[in-house]
């Protein structure tokens, strides 16, 4: 804007027309409007026209330089056919308006949903944008200009998973809601009780407790898993054709009584098929207390 006003000043000087302090102030970028100061052009006072003359207390300071010249150029001056034309307009006050920002939906492929299945895990939320506006009264009526736009609450995209069925665990998927989604890594933050964890998917399993005793594992029990690790809490038995060895999980019983917590698939068993899993406990009494329960299994990133 300043560059265009400077060009206009040079043009008026060449034509021998009068330049006022207001034009010089705008050209230098000071951007402060003083009550009663008017921008005028003309070879003599009879040709003068007021472009900007604030009303009494409605004085706007240091706002002009933030306006787009293209939006309000006619509020200052315009050139047509080698002749400077000045249109009378003035601000009548500043006011604020808010507007909702709509959200979009992001679709994320998931290996842990059946092929083609869709599940919304994060509901979108509208945002809010605030506009600082000024009203200008002109010969053709009132118009509004935007002085500043500020997002005071960003919109949040909804996230919908689209199943690829690539994992055998997809057959046992269950719905869940996420607190947030990392689109780059494809992980979703979910909360179980007071704990927040990042997951790739969620499945339902039927869990049975066991320990390393001969009652649970037979007379040849040695406390060693089928992958060669020592059996311990957090080392669980799975059907490797459904839950591959090395899969990391977080396990919670559906009745809310047990939070088995973090676990790794390291063992297997002849009776473990499909979505059945065995959870290791340190003592036989702990294993008996747990017994068999339906559990929600959160699949974690490797």
Give a verbal description of the structure.
The chain starts with a helix and ends with a strand. The strands form 4 sheets. A 6-stranded mixed β-barrel has the order 11-15-12-14-13-16. Residues 1-6 and 16-90 have low confidence and may be disordered. The chain has helices spanning 2-14, 21-28, 69-72, 214-217, 284-290, and strands at residues 78-80, 83-85, 89-101, 105-110, 118-122, 127-138, 141-153, 158-163, 180-182, 187-192, 195-210, 235-237, 248-253, 259-267, 276-280, 292-300. It is mainly beta and 302 residues long. It contains 5 helices and 16 strands. It is elongated and about 100 Å long. It folds into 3 domains: 2-87, no CATH class; 94-166, Resuscitation-promoting factor rpfb fold; 168-300, RlpA-like domain (Barwin-like endoglucanases, Beta Barrel), CATH 2.40.40. A hairpin with a 5-residue loop joins strand 13 and strand 14 (259-267). Helix 1 (2-14) crosses helix 2.
Query: Mind telling me which CATH architecture of the largest domain this is?
Result: Beta Barrel
Structural class: mainly beta
CATH domain topology of the largest domain: Barwin-like endoglucanases
Uncertain ranges: 1-6, 16-90
What order do the helices and strands follow?
A: HHHEEEEEEEEEEEHEEEEHE
Distance between the termini: 56 Å
Mean pLDDT: 76
Please report the total strand number as a whole number.
16
Q: Could you give me the name of the CATH homologous superfamily of the largest domain?
A: RlpA-like domain
Summed up, the helix count is 5
In spatial order, strands of the major sheet run 11-15-12-14-13-16
What is the CA-atom radius of gyration, in angstroms?
Answer: 36 Å
Biggest sheet layout = 6 strands, mixed, barrel
The coarse silhouette is elongated
Fraction of residues in helix: 10-25%
